[in-house]
Design brief:
Oligomer: single chain
Structural class: mainly alpha
Distance between the termini: 101 Å
Shape: globular
Mean pLDDT: 74
Number of helices: 14
Helix content: 40-55%
Low-confidence stretches: 317-391, 393-398, 409-415, 432-440
Strand order of the largest sheet: 2-1-3
Radius of gyration: 41 Å
Largest sheet: 3 strands, mixed
Strand content: under 5%
């Protein structure tokens, strides 16, 4: 792995960044501060290593001094921040397992978040400040690696910088052991708490515990091994004074790969410091990248992208339906919301309308009479209607009989029909002496 091509590390570093940043939005909804801080520190560290491996692939030129100042300080903080985030997770899991009440007040929740922020951000920032005490010069540049922190190898550096990850790992181990004991003693109360907490399920709890446990098991041995490498790979100088440590502080030391790869402990120390960040990212993704909430968000992201590029999402949408009695119809061309179409077959539809992509009136389940309207004719009479032919020709008692209006049709035609303008034949029949109107 340490002799692998440069492009291989660049690829895995960028994938590690994606593995941490993609699940971040839905983890923020759960307000798990330790997990979110772990993702941010690890993801940004992978991104920095990716950029460094690209810019300084085959050179040691000081292209971006300000970038190196910021990135080296961030790397110092990240070496402590990842174990500190593991401590936050283990501490939270312990409080969940040993909780005496299933509910928490808003003030208690706020206090827990502030404590996690103090551990996950405050301790790394303090580490960045303390590292300046033993910072021999501005920074180093290693070919194929990029910017690298410059820490003067003195006994004070072991107390202020090198030993912090192992000490934090010991506190994480304490909380991890206490969590296992509490789970064995308060199983029923623990399950009651998980039932009341909508943001934390038993599956997510044990995945968090597995992540924190692996981080704890790896932090202590690796921290001890880093102490050993720093003590044996180069001589340990005594700490004389502040002026001695920071003399010629603005210099930048540059190391071509043919020089720094000649020392086995140096190669192991440098390569291990950057590959461990990528491993931490993939360990996190192994625990949370294939969970139920992750697959749900992947599906939503796929549907959103597919709609933008015009791909069909019918199979994905149908897999979410729960199987109701009515049938769900979705118009992918017009982009409308799904509507429920009744399965009745009482109404007729034209054969051509079934091939159109536009929504028809029938798809909205609005009841319309599908019978065809018969044009009005003055020579025909129908049930419930009247015509002038059905009236007597001569009115009774010499009084004019009013002719009723033409009945209003269901759908009026554009041109009005004048019944007096239509020619008709009058039969030679005797005049009627009836005094009533016949309605057929």
């Amino acid at each position: 792995m340490f002799n692998s091509p440069d492009w291989l590390f660049s690829m895995f570093a960028f994938l590690g960044f994606l593995c941490c940043m993609i699940p971040l939005p839905w983890h923020l909804e759960a307000w798990n501060t330790g997990t979110c801080l772990y993702m941010i520190w690890t993801g940004l560290s992978c991104l920095i290593q990716f950029i460094n491996s690209i810019v300084w692939r085959s050179n040691v030129i000081n292209w971006a001094p300000v970038w190196c100042d910021i990135s080296t300080k961030f790397m110092i903080g990240a070496s402590v921040a990842i174990p500190a985030c593991s401590l936050c997770i283990n501490r939270r899991l312990y409080h969940i397992a040993s909780v005496s009440s299933v509910t928490k007040t808003r003030a208690q929740k706020r206090r827990d978040i502030m404590t996690d922020l103090a551990i996950g951000i405050g301790i790394p920032v303090l580490e960045m400040i303390l590292q300046y005490t033993v910072q021999g010069h501005r920074f180093n540049i290693f070919e194929e690696i990029g910017c690298y922190p410059a820490t003067f190898n003195t006994p004070a550096a072991y107390v202020l910088v090198f030993a912090w990850p192992m000490v934090i790992g010991c506190f994480s181990a304490y909380y991890c052991v206490r969590t296992i004991i509490e789970l064995a003693q308060r199983r029923a109360q623990f399950m009651e708490f998980l039932a009341m907490n909508k943001n934390l399920s038993s599956s997510r709890y044990f995945r968090l515990m597995g992540l924190a446990g692996i981080e704890m098991l790896c932090t202590i041995p690796l921290g001890a091994y880093v102490l050993y490498l720093n003590a044996t790979s180069q001589p340990v100088y005594p700490y004389i004074s502040w002026e001695n440590v920071h003399s010629d502080f603005s210099r930048v030391e540059q190391f071509p790969s043919v020089l720094w790869r000649m020392s086995g402990p140096t190669v192991l120390s440098i390569e291990l410091s950057r590959w461990l960040l990528v491993i931490c990212a993939f360990v996190f993704f192994a625990f949370f990248g294939f969970a139920d909430e992750a697959r749900k968000n992947y599906r939503l992201a796929y549907v959103s992208v597919a709609k933008r590029v015009g791909l069909s999402t019918a199979g994905t949408i149908s897999s979410w339906s729960t199987g109701s009695k009515s049938e769900m119809a979705y118009n992918s061309h017009s982009g409308t919301m799904p509507v429920f179409v009744s399965q009745r077959t009482e109404q007729k539809r034209d054969s051509l309308t079934s091939f159109t992509t536009d929504l028809s009136i029938g798809e909205f389940n609005i009841a319309f009479n599908d019978t065809k309207e018969i044009p009005y004719s003055p020579t025909e009479t129908a049930v419930g209607s009247m015509s002038k032919d059905s009236l007597p020709c001569t009115p009774v008692d010499g009084q004019a009989m009013p002719i009723p209006d033409v009945p209003t049709l269901a759908k009026p035609y554009p041109a009005a029909l004048d019944i007096n303008s239509v020619p008709r034949l009058v039969a030679d029949a005797p005049e009627s002496l009836r005094n009533s109107v016949d309605i057929v």
